[in-house]
Fold this protein.
Amino acid sequence: MEKYVEMGYDLVLEYGPKLVGAIIVWIIGGIVIKTLTKGFERILNKRNIDASLKPFLTGIVGALLKVMLVISVLGMLGIEMTSFVAILGAAGLAVGMALSGTLQNFAGGVMILIFKPFKNGDFLEAQGHIGIVSEIQIFNTILKSLDNKTIIIPNGGLANGSMTNYSTEEKRRVDWTFGIGYGDKTDDAKTVLLDLMKEDARILSDPEAPFVAVSELGDSSVNFAVRAWVKAEDYWGVFFDMNEKVYNTFDKKGLNIPYPQMDVHVHKN
């Protein structure tokens, strides 16, 4: 009986301080983790991170801190953690390789939600597709095309590839190319084009007044470069209306919109 008492006494002397220290570290560590997690959540709130991403990021940070705390506590109790950490690392590597594509899309989604290169409702051109952003998910971004098709783009390629966001600026420049026939007066064409743009209240004078200049002497026509600044939401309306007005007005002003043509010379022997 005394033998067992002595063994118990020795165990208490050997592991008692470690156990007490581990309990203290566990309690203090839990308090520190809660404090750090709340601080991280406040940072996310200040940076206006997407609401759907906040709980996930906060949970990831909290889980990593808890894993570190468990490993520290077990190490204090004398449990060898080297093999456990190695197995955990190998398992994580295997899972990462198996889910490489999915993890890439996840990482891309996180980057998009944090840095916000676009938002819901933006008119976007990316990965060979054009449409309005309907929803930003953690793995995919969903676009609605102009003919109301649903386009699903993985976030991995979207975050790493180039894109054009047509909605970030308040103003856009509209560009046209109009042609007149050889023999028509260029000054008359310039006057007609400038007058048509001045009549449209949607066309702005800032940051640049409407611009018209001869850009090319083509095979069948004298071509004009025409440029005007408009509000982003007026872009397509102004573009289509101007095309129609030019078609109807050129004919009334005696200006010809030429067809492609070729002169053929026949020589008789």
User: Anything to note?
Assistant: The first strand starts at residue 123 and ends at 126. DSSP finds seven helices and nine strands in the chain. The chain has a mean pLDDT of 83.
